[in-house]
Model the fold of this input.
Amino acid sequence: MNILNQVSVRQSRGIDRIVQGIATSDGAGVKLTRVLTGKLQQRLDPFLMLDAFGSDDPDDYIAGFPDHPHRGFETVTYMLSGRMRHRDSAGHEGLLENGGVQWMTAGRGVIHSEIPEQVDGLMEGFQLWLNLPAKNKMMEPWYRDFPSGAIPEYVTPQGVTVRVIAGSSNGVAGAVAREITEPLYLDIHVPAGAEFSTALPASHNAFIYVYRGAVTVGDVPVASQRMGILSNPGNLGNAAGADGVTLSATEEARLILVAGKPLNEPIVQYGPFVMNAQQEINQALSDFRNGHFA
Ligand code: FE
Done:
């Protein structure tokens, strides 16, 4: 862990929109909040979905996600608290626990399961779906577990702790880098009264999701369990020259910041398959039914 000065941000992006997630369930009945839904896939390209889960009632998570397929994108699971076992048809297996990240590139297809390895206590975290460019949708599956200690972390002079899951922030490179979508994924812990800044490329779509406390971006408050979509430079007069984001915490806050370069390609989703055309979805269904996934 290193203490460093933040790169100054001349002009911060603002908040374009506040989004409240939708309570739903997935897998074998896991209760979760879908924060980034299908309706936001174009606006937040290259991100396809964000689910937030958090419960200390085992009935809400115990059944987990039994065997199911994916094709055409990447899943990033960040476990704040809890233990979950992953197994997939490409032969990967791993235990995801407190503070760890699992990054899975489904590519041409995997069938996997995500099953809790705890019978009580808190399970809390996020699953983010990152799209793959058309030319990589049928790539070989890839998978890696990053235990908490393998996630690069830094602390600012104001005491803000930043975990860099992907991309790079204030000169600190994260656990994962991706060339085409250039994802940035930060978990930020801000003491009450502190301010935090990080640069964001003008081309990137970006959002924050606050999971403890509350923050303010510009003069717009973002409360707990809310997503704040950040304005894009050029889209709004007040963010025309924005080179990053600056936020402050009115009370102690924790949030994730996610940004990425849009693919600007057609998005056709059918459940766990995300391709560029309907014909490719039909092919995915046919390949899955015929046992051609991994
Ligand atoms: Fe899955």
The first helix runs from residue 278 to 289. DSSP finds one helix and 27 strands in the chain.
